[in-house]
Amino acid sequence: MKYAESKKKTYIVFAGFLAGISYWCKEVGICAIVILPIITGRKGFVKEAFIIAGIGVFIALGYMLYNCLVNPEAFSKILTLYNEHHMNKTKFNIIIRYITEARLAQIPATFGLGYLLWFWFAIAYSIGKRDTIVPFATFIFLMTLCAVSSDVFSYGWYFLPLYPFMAIAGGLFMRDFISKPNTAKALLILLVLVAVPLKEILPENLNNSQWLFRCYLALGILPFLVFDFLKNRITGIIAKTTCYIYISFLIIMNIYIVYHLTDLYDPLKMYGY
Predict the structure, then answer these.
(1) Which pTM was predicted?
(2) What span, in angstroms and rounded, lies between the C-alpha atoms of 82 and 86?
(3) Of 84, 183, 208, 248, whose CA is between 20 and 30 Å from 57?
(4) What pLDDT is stored for residue 83 in this prediction?
């Protein structure tokens, strides 16, 4: 996008660098080497797309070279173990199974199902808008995620290359939420961003309480419902102030969770230690 505006080659080089370094972050990042050139090519910059792909591949290959130089024996052994674990008879039809069995790549506890549903929603929504770039890029990411996952589930850290883009999207959402508050956006904030960390902090007898959840939701959306029906200066100020309160509360809760992580969550308990 920046290159289309300014025609500065720096942006093309930087895009190639990001594509290549994504693979260093996690192997699923290899999809960036495919997606970014496709997006650039679809904008009419075919030569630039090949430059991005070339830089991305060169930097990605540097990861292999780095591993070979550091410890070639260990690197070779890891590749062998990886192939033995992943390249089994179910691996060759896993992409078809991923499409036909929607929850194949998720663990039984439904962790990660939100990502899956969100990506398919993004594909459907963008097709409705007659956008060909988003569904193609999203589908490539899903299939890459599937290809590098094990046969029954994917891991949370496979999404690391996507987090910077999610952070940008989250920032844009917050900006729109503050500038144009409404009930629908407030519900997303209350049901996801606030409710999830709040559930971690509350005692077990409270976080399973249905009446508490209903009261929390009803009181939480009240300022925005009022603003939706009575659009004036006072209700607008109240709604925007509530936005800032929610964001501040979200930040405080997450800081508290990180600071008291060992008290709130002990991963060793699940293994009986």
Answers:
(1) 0.54
(2) 6
(3) 84
(4) 64
